[in-house]
Amino acid sequence: MRPILKSRKLTNVCYDIRGPVLERARQMEEEGHHIIKLNIGNPATFGFDVPEEILQDVIRNLSDASGYCDSKGLFAARKAIMHYTQEKQIKNVQLDDIFIGNGVSELVVLAMQALLDNGDEVLIPMPDYPLWTAAVVLSGGIAKHYLCNEESGWLPNLDDIRAKITAKTRAIVLINPNNPTGALYPDELLLEIIEIARQHQLIIYADEIYDKILYEQATHTSIASLAEDVLFVTFNGLSKNYRAAGFRSGWAVVSGEKSHARDYIAGLNMLASMRLCANVPSQFGIQTALGGYQSIYDLTLPTGRLMRQRDVAWKLLTDIPGVTCFKPQSALYLFPRLDPEIYPIEDDQEFALQLLLEEKVLLVQGTGFNWMNPDHFRVVFLPNVDDLTEAVGRIAHFLQHYRKRHGTY
Fold first, then answer.
1. Quick one: fold of 63-290?
2. DSSP-assigned beta bridge partners for residue 251
3. Where in this chain does the record put each Aminotransferase class I/classII large domain (predicted)?
4. What percent of the chain has pLDDT over 70?
5. 306, 314 in Cβ contact below 8 A?
């Protein structure tokens, strides 16, 4: 029989967070092995529960959630999001500017499909959250990755951004707070990126899903709050700040200069209507989440679980010979670097696979985030301190043997 092949559109698409190494981990679990998973930022898996008041609001309203809602989302949920944009000082956001989706992931794909013709280019950070690259490619576009500099705390390299703009460039993506590095961008940098977008008439897509997961009194500025003459699309949701990843409830907010983007916004409306609406039950939790007690701040205090886990994981990793790591100011991840002189890795996916096989620890290699060299990996620090200590101890043991095998210890 003629083989049934996948679409050629998937040729340059990868999502290694749930890729082949994870598949091998699943096989090992079926064989009875216990795997310590540091690969996915899924709070519920590690005992971070949805705040009870959010859960109760969803439960109480289930009887009203059996039908379709407006294609953009429930009125009360969008009203709460509008008030949140006002708190973030994003100006002139109306209800019609807000789209609720099945997580930010759906809305990223929708936003790219509405924008891109074949060959159009989008500037995406390197390293990135790989969904962005995949969404651009699947929409017929070309992802042009601009460098974020590790030595400057993983801030975007403005000169590299400017050098990669062409006549086909349509937009620039910012992930701030950043996944996978944990970097947080200062206002001065955001203003310079706005100026680049202004000069080249680019849309700014701002992925801000971690905007409340901040450490050591850090503060987050929404880039859309800093200008009104550039088009912004800002993404956020319940998955991380409210530990409700399984609710699949996110939103996109269009703001700034919208008059010249009426046709693009009509495209967003069309695609939002085609999928009928987002998951209705979880939308009943949005108003309570945004207007209620922000328990995430208890977790990010010096005595809070997230900050303690960050500090323990960072200290243990950087105590390993040849391992350095920027200490994240935000989000849920560490992105350590392996000194190539000590760890001459040629294939970091194979490196992650061998770590899994030998030490039963699952993580994601740096190239899975479109990083250019096989010298980084991402660690999720959601597990409790004991599990993190065990996991990093196993990583240290693996790296010790690696150094011995290669004569670099």
1. Aspartate Aminotransferase; domain 2 (3.40.640)
2. 100, 236
3. 34-395
4. 99
5. no
Task: Enumerate residues 6+ apart whose C-beta is below 8 A from 233.
Answer: 111, 203, 204, 205, 206, 252, 253, 254, 255
pTM score above 0.90: yes
Which tokens is 252 given? 């996109």
CB-based contact 47:384 (threshold 8 Å): yes
The residues near 67 (Cβ < 8 Å, ≥ 6 apart) are: 280
Instruction: Outline where 48-129 has alpha helix (H).
Output: 52-60, 75-87, 103-115
- Paired tokens of 323: 């391992």
Q: Do domains 8-49+298-406 and 63-290 have the same CATH topology?
A: no
DSSP, collapsed to helix, strand or coil, labels residue 237 as strand
Q: Which of 304, 307, 297 is nearest to 327 (CA)?
A: 307
Q: Is the Cα dihedral 283, 289, 290, 296 positive or negative?
A: negative
Relative to beta strand 169-175, strand 361-362 is unpaired
Nearest Cα residue to 35 out of 394, 400, 402: 394
Domain ranges within the chain, ordered by starting residue = 8-49+298-406, 63-290
CATH code for residues 8-49+298-406: 3.90.1150.10
User: What distance in Å separates the CA atoms of residue 308 and residue 214, rounded to the nearest whole number?
Assistant: 13
Mean of pLDDT over the chain = 95
Q: Are 366 and 127 in contact (CB under 8 A)?
A: yes
Backbone angles phi, psi at 401, to 5 degrees: -65, -35
Cα 321 → chain centroid: 29
**CA 318/CA 215 separation, integer angstroms:** 19
Per-residue tokens: 100:
């609720």
- The DSSP result for 212-228, as a single string, is T-B-TT-----GGGG-S
Which H or E run includes 352?
A: helix 348-359
Beta-bridged to residue 323, according to DSSP, are 338
pLDDT at 18 over 80: no
